[in-house]
Design a protein that fits this description.
Blueprint lengths: L10 H13 L2 H4 L8 H15 L4 E2 L24 H11 L9 H10 L3 H12 L10 H10 L6 E4 L11 E5 L21 E9 L4 E9 L2 E8 L33 E8 L15
Parallel strand pairs: 1-6
Antiparallel strand pairs: 2-7, 3-4, 3-7, 4-5, 5-6
Length: 282
């Protein structure tokens, strides 16, 4: 009986686990930090960091894989650096205010201060994305894409209709008491809206989009989202204003991908001729 126990596991779970593991684009991408096109360089730098943090992930059903190292720990990452010092470098190397030089103070700062926008800023600087304005707030990235859709490096699009590709940013609003959606985003961009953006590193129509974000589960984490045959998000889990909180009584609402997704920032860079990073036109 035990020899047949694996048959009780839903076939869809096995298929997803197998395809997600086999299709992880980062092992191939992380060696391309010197690629000619900026989209591949952005993906490569993000993938390198994901590997250094021991590849934590959230699968397409919103289930989180084990996180090996957390942001404020002294535990060594794959490159030998301490986790908290790596996060400090995202602040320092991006020339963003807030980096501290005393160990105790800096570690407290890392615990108490969201660093996901500093991570995006660090990646874009390393990748050499021209015109990108580094910031400690994701809303600044979105606001610039909205105000300068052709002059800046990104243009704002709805996440529900656009086709994600390497180098894009997918963003949601972090306000528990309300849900904006793309339709109400522009009216709120003048304020300091709490947001989070992940970096798209690869997208295969009919399969998955792979994104890497900093300060996701206190680490640098990969997120997987399903795509339809046209390359659009197939069932982007959208939080609603009526959602009860995640709890044992509502386990389906504990999906880590269920967010108030409001923006896809499309990279304005020229398309690549390299197959692994071919981009769809906006």
């Amino acid at each position: 009986m035990r020899a047949l126990a694996w048959l009780l596991v839903p076939a869809s779970w096995l298929a997803l686990a197998t395809s997600a593991h086999a299709a992880d684009p980062c092992p191939a991408l992380r060696t391309q930090a010197n690629a000619a096109d900026v989209a591949t360089r952005i993906a490569a730098v993000a993938c390198q960091e994901h590997s250094i943090w021991f590849r934590p992930f959230i699968d397409a059903d919103g289930h989180a894989g084990t996180t090996a190292v957390y942001e404020a720990e002294s535990t060594r990452l794959a490159d030998g650096s301490q986790a908290w010092r790596r996060v400090a470098a995202y602040w320092d190397d991006s020339d963003l205010a807030g980096y501290c030089h005393q160990q105790a103070t800096c570690r407290d700062f890392i615990i108490d201060t969201p660093w996901s926008a500093a991570f995006v800023s660090w990646v874009m600087r390393r990748a050499g994305l021209a015109g990108f304005r580094r910031s400690a707030s994701h809303v600044d990235f979105v606001r610039m894409a909205w105000q300068q859709p052709t002059q800046g490096p990104y243009q704002l699009q709805s996440p529900h209709g656009a086709r994600p590709a390497a180098g894009d940013l997918l963003c949601y609003v972090r306000v528990a008491q309300r849900v904006l959606g793309y339709e109400n985003l522009a009216d709120n961009l003048v304020s300091g809206l709490p947001m989070h953006c992940d970096i798209v590193v690869a997208a295969t129509p009919g399969e998955l989009a792979y994104l890497v974000g900093g300060n996701v589960q206190q680490s640098v984490t990969m997120r997987m989202l399903r795509l339809d045959a046209q390359g659009r998000f197939a069932d982007l889990p959208q939080r609603t204003a009526l959602d009860p909180p995640c709890s044992p009584d509502a386990p389906l609402l504990c999906n880590a991908n269920r967010q108030d997704w409001v923006a896809l920032l499309k990279l304005n860079a020229p398309p690549s001729t390299d197959l692994i990073s071919t981009r769809d036109a906006p």
